[in-house]
Here is the input.
Amino acid sequence: MARVGLILSGCGVYDGSEIHEAVLTMLALDRAGAETVIMAPDKPQMHVVDHTTGNATKQKRNVLVEAARIARGDIVDVKTVRASELDAVILPGGYGAAKNLSTFATDGDQCKVDEDVQSLLREMHAEGKPIGALCIAPAVIAGIFGEELHPEITIGNDADTVAALESMGASHFEAGVTEVVIDQHNKIITTPCYMLPARISDIATGAEKAVHALLAMAGETAGATT
Here is the structure.
């Protein structure tokens, strides 16, 4: 059974993980027979957004505590997880990826990635294990590996976001909402999800395709190391 890390960034599209993307990724992993290890950074959110208005509030919340809502409490601090414990890792989208896992929302192509998230993803790459990212989460990939690996990724077709990712060193490929871009050399899988107008059924299709590609690549990796 493959063991896949799922990195969340809170709970809610505007300030955390996009819940549809997170849950549908979890469902796809479960249906594929994988064990999911859910994790998030234990730190304050950038801010808290009222999802009925889209406006920031004065509340303060913790990324791990909020992500635990999606995980039904079965969650760990990302800094406690080592790549040796996993076969693959995947990041759902939501603005939390650009606000809590990285500073892409405020700093664009000059963004920084959370140290613990970066450490785990660098370990995964060093061990030749695949990494998946949905929606805006490929910005985290570009923030870590852009200049070094020039990973092939997609966020759909938003011109400003594409320009920022390419400025960071990534190679962007336009893709539809249910399409997946697979960087075989760097073992990175991405799909646009809600970066494009979509029905929830489209998100399910994109997430499932990404998960299947991730697990297939993880199987190849395991076979190569045994």
User: Anything to note?
Assistant: The mean pLDDT is 96. Residues 3-225 form a domain with the Rossmann fold fold (CATH 3.40.50.880). The longest strand covers residues 35-40.
